[in-house]
Amino acid sequence: MKVIVSGEFDEKLKIHFSQGNWNTKIYPLFENLNPVNIELDPDPSLFKLTIIYGAEKYYFENVLYISNPNLDNLSFHFYKESERIFCKIKSEIVLELNKEIVLNPLPDCIKELDDALKNYNDDDNCASL
To answer: Which of 15, 26, 37 minimizes the C-alpha distance to 89?
Structure first.
């Protein structure tokens, strides 16, 4: 799979696919300002695309590949307009991905869960395994 990222972004930008519910596999597509060369299972698969822009903006979407995902060329172009962050996504295989999106703040319910997990891990009274 070839990944091209352009536009306005910084070193905190991360793009990845994940697969599975309990035993989730994460496949980084872009991190540390560079695309990551990955080899996915060539069978048709359902992935969750996650874009993390800094620590503030996110985008999630399920992506269904009905053919070999390794043959796809994905491009992501980021730009800012009116204090909002947009991304133009293009895919050669998954036509539903060919669109322009707005990255949004993380929902409050997920922020609360994240804070609860951080507090749980920081709690001195946690039982060790």
So the answer is: 15
Question: pTM of the entire structure?
Answer: 0.82
- Residue 42 phi, psi (nearest 5): -70, -10
27-68 pLDDT tens trace:
999 999 999 988 999 999 999 999 999 878 999 999 999 999
Strand, coil or helix: what is 95? helix
**DSSP result, 20-69:** -SSS-EEEEEEETTEE------SS-EEEEEEEEETTTEEEEEEEEESS-G
Rounded CA separation 27/15 (Å):
9
